[in-house]
Amino acid sequence: MVGIFLQVLPFFALIVLGWGACRVRIFPPEATGHLTKFIFFFPLSAMLFKFTSELDLAQVFHWRFVLAYFVGSLSVWALGFAVARLRGEGVASSAIEAQTGMVGNTGFLGVPMLAAILGAQAVAPILMVLCVDLIGFSVLFTLVINVARHGRAQISVMALGLLKNPMIVSMAAGLAWSSLHLPTPEPAARALSLLAAAATPGALFAIGASLAQLRLTRLGPACWLSTIKLVIHPAVVGLSAVWVFHIAPFEAGVMIAAAALPVAGNVYMLAQHYGVGAERVSAAIFVSTVVSIVTLPLILAHVTM
């Protein structure tokens, strides 16, 4: 347990560094958006391309794994949605709460941290989780919002949104390159490695800087949403993986660890874009990130036993 905590600690230390730098104005708040965009479009995309270009398509898309994660996560999404509706929230507000309780920070935190702690063999399962979150649940959320507000699905808008996401594009490009079985020229490979190396520290610093600007209001819903994300989501996904779909122990452990990640920052962007629940989402991101300093090592220690 102590060993796992010491492995996780440097990652959260960089988050704290970003938070502190922004709070004392060494790193100005207005620069956070630019840093996040840089990491999102360049180093993180380079890292994802590098990972996927070294994998076989069959390694990334293990359909039983995908179904296990999707079914477990969909159950949690439905729970978050139902509880919000029972509290009297509207469809759009309930959808953003469901998304908050289910979508973890897999891109910025999960990929670099879990790959470093669990090893290279964890990359493919992590990427499968990321694909389900980015494609499956982004589509579900957008579908629910658009049907509730406009009475139709707006398929073209959803498709365009997916095509404009650099994480999806970089993974698709990496898999395409891998399927062609072409060697990456040495200068290009070195440039890619240099750029990808900036993803982990840059993403963690950007998470911390973003947290420094979030408002802590509506703590009641934020604590509930953090509980769904950090406790209920990994528990339900674990049941789905182990008891229903009989996923191999290591892959199931990676899935559970990925489900235990704190709330993703892009959920806050969705809340702002659709004008619904931004305050409770921002509070949930802050609370879940802070609490995950304790819960994530506990879960990692359990799944690596």
Low-pLDDT residue intervals, each spanning 5 or more residues: none
| Assigned CATH architecture | Up-down Bundle
Structural class: mainly alpha
Radius of gyration: 18 Å
CATH topology: Na+/H+ antiporter like fold
| Strand coverage percent | under 5%
Share in helix = over 70%
Number of domains: 1
Number of strands: 0
Number of helices: 16
- Text of the CATH class: Mainly Alpha
Round the mean pLDDT to the nearest integer and report it. 90
Q: Indicate the overall shape.
A: globular
What letter string, H or E per element, gives the SSE order? HHHHHHHHHHHHHHHH
Task: Walk me through what this model shows.
- This protein is an all-alpha fold and 305 residues long.
- It has a single domain (2-303), classed as Up-down Bundle (Na+/H+ antiporter like fold).
- It is built from 16 helices and no strands.
- It has helices spanning 2-23, 30-41, 43-53, 57-60, 63-86, 91-100, 106-118, 123-150, 155-163, 166-180, 186-197, 199-211, 219-244, 249-259, 265-274, 278-303.
- Helix 1 (2-23) packs across helix 12 and helix 15 (265-274) runs antiparallel to helix 16.
- The mean pLDDT is 90.
